[in-house]
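Researcher: Next entry in the queue.
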Amino acid sequence: MSEGDEKSLPKECKLLSSILYTSCSFFLADLHYDRLVASSKSFAWPTPQRQDFDRALYQAISTRAHLTLRIRLLCGSDGLFSAEAFSWETVTTDSSWTVLLDVRPVDADLRLVQHKTTLREHYEEPVKRLGTSYTAHQEVLLYNKQGLITEGTISSIAVRRQGKWITPRVESGCLAGVMRRCLLNQDMITEGDIHKDELQNGESVIIFNALRGVLDATLDQGTQKKSVSKS
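Model: Structure for this entry, 231 residues:
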């Protein structure tokens, strides 16, 4: 698929953002909007307007503005928005997650992993393959055909190397996550290459997204092997 070739995108494809509404504000709204603009440009779609973005968000929370909510915001190839609000319980940062390495590399169009869209099969399949559960605080770690780590199915990841938190480069085939961008802007993480063979069972990592924030996690290759043997 060539960059900016709208015809090669499925008609049902829409840009997607999951936005946390809490304490009467939309968390990292500016970064969410900036990413939507960048993705629209990449797809050769009209530039979505900020006033339309804000209007869709406020309409979604109109009757529940006193609650903590997850906003599912969609932007189509016409540059127009739609949004729905869902109840959301803020995740406590002391909840430790387990990360399992997938058993095969990601096989998906590069633009559909570098931009967040409604086409989610390349994330859903690893979860089914390993039998993991988000409610059980389990995440699947993905990698490309060169063996480079890319991301989790619902999160970005960083590993500790030489005193720094290293997160995969976008060029490796990962989503330009909003929380990832926030942490990069604050120099809390830096980009680099991470090969799957470098990872150690029991290694401590961090995973993060704009809904759950930054979470401690542990790589569990033992559980991965058990899941594979059952398949």
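Model: Confidence is low (pLDDT under 50) at residues 1-7.
Researcher: Noted, moving on.
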